[in-house]
Amino acid sequence: MENLISLVNKIQRACTALGDHGEESALPTLWDALPSIAVVGGQSSGKSSVLESVVGKDFLPRGSGIVTRRPLVLQLHRIDEGREYAEFMHLPRKRFTDFAAVRKEISDETDRETGRSTKQISSVPIHLSIYSPNVVNLTLIDLPGLTKVAVEGQPESIVQDIENMVRSFIEKPNCIILAISPANQDLATSDAIKISREVDPKGERTFGVLTKIDLMDKGTNAVDILEGKSYKLQFPWIGVVNRSQADINKSVDMIAARRREREYFSNTTEYRHLAHRMGSEHLGKMLSKHLETVIKSRIPSLQSLISKTIAELEAELSRLGRPVATDAGGKLYMIMEICRTFDQIFKEHLDGVRPGGDKIYGVFDNQFPAALKRLQFDKHLSMDNVRKIITEADGYQPHLIAPEQGYRRLVESSLICIRGPAEAAVDAVHGILKELELKQYPTLRVEVGNAAVESLDRMREESKKATLQLVDMECGYLTVEFFRKLPQDIEKGGNPTHSIFDRYNDSYLRRVGSVVLSYVTMVCGSLRNSIPKSIVYCQVREAKRSLLDYFFADLGKKETKQLSSLLDEHPAVMQRRTSLAKRLELYRSAQAEIDAVAWSK
């Protein structure tokens, strides 16, 4: 039992040192999964006296009003021999053998957080460990006493603030509630019972402790409560008799106080039959035994949580990458590896393993065709424009059979319009390729990003040149077979007796415009297929093949200092990696120790 509870205490201390017990962590915390005991009660309910009786030492601040203004996480460690001492988490290398000094440090540390002149409270806990041969292994959390009204110097919200703080601890399913109620007050008005019942309605996690039994009015007793008749809990009520204020003033020690407590229950007729399960000594032993039972029952879920968290920590550390190497060779290798990873991720985006490549297809399948459709060829081939271009092409000598030069000029001037959508498609793909970035090292991200952009810019220029050449090829050489059919088509619908000058009439010009539009539409269909091929060949394929080639060539020329400047990892990333590594070490250690306990059961 002692080993098991000591193990949990050890893990809790390690969790606290790493900050692995707060809501700010995105990962599940081991601290919250470990069972703990929270001491709850109203002001002046005898809460502090119960704790001191369990410990057997005077060490808690006393006074009127709110004395406990911060949670106190109290870990008791039983030692076989030696002098009793205490240690605070915030003073790790200092041992306190004078428990009056412990009381003063608790007050001082409270004031450091909340202010000496105020009566404010704080949810930031104080962590105290006590090592003694006279204690049982146990962890208790002393919480500020519940109150009903704010006194002078306190904000009006103090009542709700304290209740919210207490709830934040006792609402956790792994929290065992020690509800302290004074026997000389009506149990129906007990703050501890009221709030415990709200979070634990079945009483499965609640232990009731009745204080000030010796201060009850004559003729009355607490037998009905202690026997569970007045208010039944899953666990038996425990009565305690604390030192009176007169005893405290006379510095009556705990050994004498415990003896008097035993004598009180043994010699009082009403409580004699309950004496074997009354008193602060029994309370400590019972809580320790119950805590051991709860811990044992939680071992499987703890093992599951630890395994899951280790996997999550390892995954995040893997995403963050290794720490920066110290030697030049190591730095160069690390930079090359990071760049290769960047290059591989870039390819995966294009190949469909990661999102991104579909956007390029969207350019080819939607954006580029839509841009071609928006070209207003019909306006360009209006009657007036066709007449103008044909007559200009004829010059002083009108065409004899078909206006060949006119056709060429009409086709060329129409196809030139396709250059705009073609260039836009190249630019759109270029923009998609530039979207990726390297996030781990700021300077390296800039350098690699710049190198990648420079390569993509070069590829874009080559792609534009090749793509526009496709358009220029169509302008420079018309498909003859298409136009060889024209004389036949004209003869079918025309009148061969018309004079040459009649060929400038509206019907004739309309036919010419229709023929040119048909040809341009045919060419658009062809370019719609060939331009994406050109873009993929010149940009996408090249980006996959040689995105960082220029950067790699330049990298080999850099000296150690320049390589170091590339790996100026962001401090937040370094801090996060260190924090994760420490947490991972904690969880692996906890896993090994809990597994050892589980196997030894």
Automatic annotation (TrEMBL):
Coiled coil: none annotated. It is found in: Cytoplasm, Cytoskeleton. One of its GO terms (cellular component) is microtubule. GO terms for molecular function: GTP binding; GTPase activity; microtubule binding. Pfam families: Dynamin_M, Dynamin_N, GED. Keywords: Cytoplasm, Cytoskeleton, GTP-binding, Hydrolase, Microtubule, Motor protein, Nucleotide-binding. Residues 31-300 form the Dynamin-type G domain. The keyword Cell cycle does not apply. Residues 509-601 form the GED domain. Belongs to the TRAFAC class dynamin-like GTPase superfamily. Dynamin/Fzo/YdjA family. PANTHER family: DYNAMIN, PHRAGMOPLASTIN DRP1B. This is Dynamin superfamily. It comes from Trema orientale.
